[in-house]
Amino acid sequence: MAIVDLFDRQIDSIRSFDPETQRSTDRFEKVELLPAREFSLSAESIKEFRRRFRTRFEGDLTRMSMYRDVGAGLAPAGSEYYLPLFHESSVTLLDFLPRQAVIVLPESTEATLAAAWDTIEERYEERRYDIEHPVLAPGEIFATPDEWLGRARQLRRVQLVGRTALVTDADSPLESPALEPPPTLRLDQRRPDTIRQAAAVLRDSPERVLLAAESPGRRELLIDLLRPYGLTPRVVSGWDEFLASSERLAITVAPLASGLTLPAAGLTIIAEEQLFGERAQQERRRRRADRDPARIIQQLAALRPGAPVVHEDYGIGRYRGLVTMDVGGMTAEFLLLEYAGDDKLYVPVQSLERVSRYTGAPAELLSGRSLRACSRSLARVCLISSNSNSNSMNRKGSACLCNSR
User: pTM for the complete prediction?
Assistant: First the structure.
């Protein structure tokens, strides 16, 4: 396994990585990534392809580029449309889903499938008479709409119809809860009145409310914004934990584009995008992609120890300065951030784009939850006890989390 360290959009280093010891040692000049394909180009696979191709198509094989290229061990563009010639049989995505899976179908599923099938058949009619580029019939490559729907009906599914979700199991309706849009809320960190109004709406909501943040860092920011107004959402791992609880207001990390209200169940989900707006979300992502490393260093150099900063994943902490550490036999510089419970976060300098100066409301307190609590939902963080004899870097090189106690 290899770990790639990035500095902005440039590769800073490529090193070996051992998941067992969490150590990286050897450096590489390059790593060769082979493309993942739906078929093998082994000698046996090519032999079977050529045999089925000769059986399926007539004419001068030497003029057929697909036959020649695959025979030479190449995978030309469009070779995936000849999968039946590589395999005895093929399957669809639905065949890989477990029996207990639930699929969600949009209102126009059947019409969309029918339109896609018409397009496939039209393209087949345009290409079927090209003797140098023969093509397989649509039914040999694709599942027909009826076949796809037939397999989908073997699973439990949610069929969206307007603002209603029809839940079915083996073609039997189970329930049809009405869906409504969540309340309209807009938060602006520079305008406390918007936060006060949102807090009032959440406090008076007739439904139990689950807030969905983009990341653990954004979750902690939302908690900090609402705390001065008497609201402290309970942090839950997800939808199941929220349902099992009796909390009136909770918060989790989930990449939702929009929320909803289930009046009959008395539940509301509000996505972060609905709190700060799609434009704010796009601006954050644009700033993240376009931030100049030199400017980042200049901004952080102006920080004084003790100043509040924001990490994308962990939220608001205190900047304590630059430290040098030996990690995996290599010396590197880290930003030291301090959080609640005396937890410390060491951010590699090549990941400076994940840290920014805090510009919100006065930060009298650090993020209310310790890093250890935050890290439970972040598999890429390595928690190191102070009595451990080894240091380690996380897999993405974004931070090294140490428990100081």
Answer: 0.47
